[in-house]
């Protein structure tokens, strides 16, 4: 599987995994379009981090509207006329909804999602960045400090667990699982080149890239 056969690649992972930075580097290296999510355009997100219970549904619906617009643009427009690297998977919204919403809110969200996002493009390859919980928490704490916001207590652990469960069962597209504990994929060249080799040599539906020290 060389990258030239990949029209739509997604880099995913929980907060602190480095997915957005890697997606940008891959898009730049391959010279293809980057399709990035834009959390800053969600007006409810700052309030959500201060009070998850009160602003979870509005936050999820705002992201859902963004995703629905993107999906329509990809399916009906010319977004996929040339290769694309994206830093989000469309299914991630439902993953976060299950973490953030109570039972009644989740049922309402799912009914609205069926109307707004009935279909979306399936990637040719998904790169799932994982790391140990401690590493993710350290990276997330640094990110929160940079953004001058604190994640709610216990929230990151719930998100990380949800990602692990989701990708354990994921079968919609070929999946490359990358353990980033000891990898420098954004600034380092050696590890990045190893990742490129894993992508080009990947066979089948699921593969793993892990580097021990």
Outline:
With 213 residues, the protein is α/β, with parallel strands linked by helices.
Secondary structure blueprint with pairings:
Elements lengths: L7 E5 L6 H12 L2 E3 L9 H6 L1 H25 L7 E3 L5 H9 L2 H14 L8 E6 L2 H15 L7 H15 L5 E5 L9 H13 L4 E5 L3
Parallel strand pairs: 1-3, 1-4, 2-3, 4-5, 5-6
Helix pairs in contact: 3-4, 3-5
Number of DSSP helices?
8
> How would you state the average pLDDT, rounded?
88
Following the backbone from N to C, one meets helices and strands in this order, namely EHEHHEHHEHHEHE
The backbone outline, from C-alpha atoms, is globular
User: Fraction of residues in helices?
Assistant: 40-55%
**Cα-atom radius of gyration:** 17 Å
Instruction: Please report the total strand number as a whole number.
Output: 6
Q: Please state how the strands of the largest beta sheet are arranged side by side.
A: 2-3-1-4-5-6
Q: What fraction of the residues are assigned to beta strands by DSSP?
A: 5-15%
Q: How far apart lie the N and C ends? A: 28 Å
Helix-and-strand structural type: alpha/beta
Enumerate the spans where pLDDT stays under 50 for 5 or more consecutive residues: none
The major sheet is characterized as:
6 strands, parallel
